[in-house]
Write a structure and sequence with these properties.
heterodimer, A: 319 residues, mainly alpha, MetI-like fold, 2 domains, three-stranded antiparallel beta sheet, 14 helices, 66% helix, elongated, B: 252 residues, alpha/beta, Rossmann fold, four-stranded antiparallel beta sheet, 36% helix
């Protein structure tokens, strides 16, 4: 953890060289577009970035190193907050690559997951817990749901590949397919958590409401569900947090592709944050090592926020 | 005295196990009838037949008739939800909803829309809390959680909640078994006051309580109704030796 923070924190900063220094050999490969726009400061190449931050020589020639040192003395090279890390999508150049595409992809994917797994999961749990007859068939269904909650996530990826892509023919690396696949994965977890929350509501409360002439639906929605709500919400948010960090099933359905533009619809080619981290981590360039750790930090922060929301909701419903 | 509830040849089964055998018993209007007997004798099962709360237990099977105002409550055409507005229930352990004191009493009137506006609902809540002898104790904290009340107060709140839907019958399943003697005394007093407006059926295995609060007593033993009659007579001159044994403390 400490190492990730230590390695990832510098990713939030980038080295820039003053345009007036006229050293195109120190700039990133797309610098000529920036020069045309009359920018005063231009993003440096990743080699310069690494040397400036960590004094790693890399591919720099002694001549270039000398130039960087003299620019430093003249104040024509600087470190600024790397907004591009949050606003750019993936790139082959580590100094230009950002997590925006992954973040948007994760958001769209998670939205699909929520919209499918939440209503179906809660509905299934309510039916099984409150309405289903207790017979051999429902016992069998219950046992299967409990088992599904423990199935390795990559198998859900296989199911998604066969069913959504090969059978239904949905577009391959899209947020729709990714979200549906993660929805399948989250479903049993949500069902199990919701049922546990529902069954922890004391039966005496149900009897009290029934005794007052409440209909079974009123008992359910006035008393049982509100009382079980903190448990249900915790289960849902934690399973969504797990889906957000999930990589393996998405690799199975082809979401591993390099995608340099953020998706604008659920059917566009999409990548998600953990898959982007996975892709970056396979790159040996130092700039990407830094980016990998930086993106992990962002993912951890997002997960911490989600868990914080879960705790907040639980507290709010309890009071 | 007209009979409010008339149970005729009632048999009750939990799966294969029979819990009540050919029970026939009348409950006179505006009187308190105590159902008494050792644990597992079927008195609570009978009580829960009277508002069909046994229906929610799987594999319950019932034969016979239960007439409320000469109408069979097990007739297929009967609306169970409506039945329970006529037959209220107070449970063994106080079970207030985890809401405010006000909301607990207001819940029944709310789901049955027994009021026109907020003022009328306020009146209903006040009236029923007063009837349950709780108004003076809680009038300054109506919107605090009901769970903060003491056990005895909670049980009286549950009584206020039950009578707020204007039932005709109140079933009480050992309402004092979780209360201390002082709270018990208050609830017993309350039962005596409520008798003027409601027909009360109370399950108890406390002999003194049955003697104190009831006018009619029925004694049960292993699913059979052993004997029933006027409380004073049953306690002083029990006809059956099992009743005598229970009353004199030979078992129980």
């Amino acid at each position: 953890m400490g190492k990730i923070v230590y390695t990832g924190y510098p990713a939030f900063f980038r080295t820039e060289v003053a345009a007036q220094a006229e050293r195109p050999d120190l700039l990133n490969v797309h610098a000529r577009y920036f020069l045309k726009e009359n920018k005063k400061w231009i993003t440096a190449s990743d080699d310069v970035d690494m040397y400036y931050k960590h004094e790693v020589v890399g591919n720099l020639t002694p001549h270039q190193i000398q130039a960087i040192d003299s620019l430093k003395n003249q104040g024509q090279i600087r470190l600024v907050f790397n907004t591009g890390f949050f606003t750019h999508s993936d790139s082959r150049e580590p100094e230009l690559a950002g997590i925006w595409g992954g973040l948007i992809g994760s958001l769209l994917t998670l939205f699909v997951t929520f919209c499918t797994a939440f209503p179906i999961g809660i509905g299934t749990a309510l039916y099984l817990e409150e309405f289903a007859p207790k017979n051999r068939f429902t016992n069998w269904v219950e046992a299967n749901i409990n088992n599904l909650a423990a199935v390795p996530s990559i198998l859900f990826g296989l199911l998604g590949l066969v069913f959504f892509i090969h059978f239904l023919g949905l577009p391959r690396p899209s947020a729709l397919v990714g979200g549906l696949t993660l929805g399948l994965m989250s479903l049993p977890v949500i069902v199990v958590a919701t049922r546990a929350a529902l069954s922890s509501v004391p039966p005496t409360l149900k009897e009290a409401a029934l005794g007052l002439g409440a209909t079974p639906l009123q008992v359910l929605f006035h008393h049982v569900v509100p009382m079980a709500m903190p448990g249900i919400m915790t289960g849902v948010i934690l399973s969504l947090a797990r889906a957000l960090g999930e990589t393996a099933p998405l690799l199975m359905i082809g979401m591993v592709a390099f995608i340099a533009t953020p998706p604008s619809t659920f059917l566009d080619p999409t990548t998600v944050l953990p898959v982007q981290i996975f892709n970056w981590s396979r790159s040996s360039e130092m700039g990407f090592v830094e980016n990998t750790s930086g993106a992990i930090l962002v993912l951890l922060i997002v997960l911490a926020i989600l868990n914080g929301i879960a705790i907040f909701i639980r507290k709010k419903f309890e009071s | 005295m007209p009979l409010k509830i008339d149970v005729k040849d009632l048999n009750l089964f939990y799966g294969d196990k029979q819990a009540l055998f050919n029970v026939s018993l009348g409950f006179p209007e505006f009187q308190t009838t105590a159902l008494m007997g050792p644990s597992g004798c079927g008195k609570s099962s009978l009580l829960r037949c009277l508002n069909r709360l046994n229906d929610i237990i799987p594999n319950v099977h019932i034969q016979g008739k239960v007439l409320l105002d000469k109408e069979d409550i097990y007739a297929p055409s009967l609306d169970v939800v409506e039945l329970r507005t006529h037959v209220g229930m107070v449970f063994q352990k106080p079970n207030p909803f985890p809401h405010s004191i006000y909301e607990n009493v207001a819940y029944g009137p709310r789901i049955h829309t027994l009021f026109k506006d907020k003022t009328e609902l306020d009146e209903i809540v006040e009236k029923n809390l007063a009837r349950a002898g709780l108004w003076d104790e809680v009038k300054d904290r109506l919107h605090q959680p009901a769970t903060r009340l003491s056990g005895g107060q909670q049980q009286r709140l549950c009584i206020a909640r039950a009578i707020a839907v204007n039932p005709e019958v109140i079933l009480m399943d050992e309402p004092c078994s979780a209360l201390d003697p002082i709270a018990t005394a208050r609830v017993e007093e309350l039962i005596d006051e409520l008798r003027e407006r409601f027909t009360i059926v109370i399950v108890t295995h406390n002999l003194q309580q049955a003697a104190r609060v009831s006018q009619q007593t029925a004694f049960f033993h292993s699913g059979h109704l052993v004997e029933a009659g006027e409380t004073g007579a049953l306690f002083t001159m029990p006809q059956d030796e099992r009743t005598q044994g229970y009353i004199t403390g030979r078992y129980g």
